[in-house]
Amino acid sequence: MIIINDKPGLLCNRLWAYSFFIAYAQKHNRKIYIPHFREYRSYFNDLSVIPDVYFHNIEKYPHIDALSFHFYVFLTKVLRVISMFVNLARLRIYIDSKNWTREQWPEAVMRQNKTILFLGSWLHPKDVSALLEAKHRIIRLFEPKHLYRERIDQLFSNVRGHCDVLIGVHIRRTDYKDFHSGVYYYKDDIYKRYMTIILKLFRDRHVCFYIASDSPIDASQYHEFDKVHLRNPEMIEDLYALSRCDYIMGPPSTFSMWASFVGDVPLRILRYKDEKITLGQFSPILYQNVFRNGEQFHHIDNQDETSLHEKSLEGYL
Q1: Strand locations in the chain, DSSP E?
Q2: CA proximity to 67, closest of 56, 78, 77, 81
Q3: CATH number reported for the structural domain that contains residue 285 in this entry
Q4: Which of 128, 183, 194, 197 can pair with 311 through a Cys bridge, CB separation 3.0 to 4.6 Å?
């Protein structure tokens, strides 16, 4: 069994990180246990839809659920201490107390059967081909519950009745004031500038914008556009809505990348405040940070960062 021992950030960071290893476990007939997803489990329709993929979930007995989770956390701490003095690999337990969540297990260890292997999903090398092969199963696994989909489907049914093109605009504010020194923190006038460019690109068609934001939206700031948004949306509702748009644009984010991935929606990441945009620059996400057109995203201050995903893309581009 593979046990994922990290919780890298918010919802979509975890969806990306965990999906790679869910797909890997499926490819190699291994069980996988994902305990650190508790705050998001209620968003999804059926997290048991893929055999041998286990989330920490005892819905009928929430007190037992909480108790068993705390027991798991306690047990891992005990095993990490023991591993400092005893070679647990002899017992077919692979746990790295010194590099907890930063393990770099070789493939020979990853493939061993009848072992318990703890690893951090965010930084561990990924098998891209496994994710691409399992994409449809991953999408089914993380399908939002009907109550979240229904609200968006009803809204979009009305919107689609009068617009030709629906553009998802992802606004990221709260944590982006500090993320990478605030370089991706855009004020309303920046988003409005890009929305105006989109209108020019589709000058012969009626464009409507869906605005998704992690902070309250001041609709009056966007009065000149045909736009819709939800009041007090759940995170999963905005995510699902973006996946149902025709195009998505927004600052770099695993949120918009996941929406593009599951909905096969062309995405344009806005890396600067004054870029030129063409329709040819929009492309669906193939997997995290990599577009189907072969382009790879790198942060502005890290142009030379080495991709964590070294597997060949041959046959998928």
Answers
A1: 2-4, 32-34, 53-55, 93-94, 116-119, 165-171, 207-213, 227-228, 247-250, 267-269, 285-287, 290-291
A2: 56
A3: 3.40.50.11350
A4: 128
* 3-state SS class at 315: coil
Beta bridge partners of 166: 208
Cα separation, 172 vs 124, in Å, equals 27
> In terms of domains, do 126 and 68 share one?
yes
Residue 220, domain extent: 146-291
* Of 141, 159, 189, the domain-final residue: 141
* CA gap 177, 239 in Å, rounded: 21
Both 174 and 280 in one domain: the answer is yes
- For residue 211, the cross-strand partners are 169
- Residues 122, 87 share a domain: yes
pTM to 2 decimals?
Answer: 0.91
Interval 283-296: pLDDT, tens: 999 999 999 999 99
d(CA 281, CA 79): 49
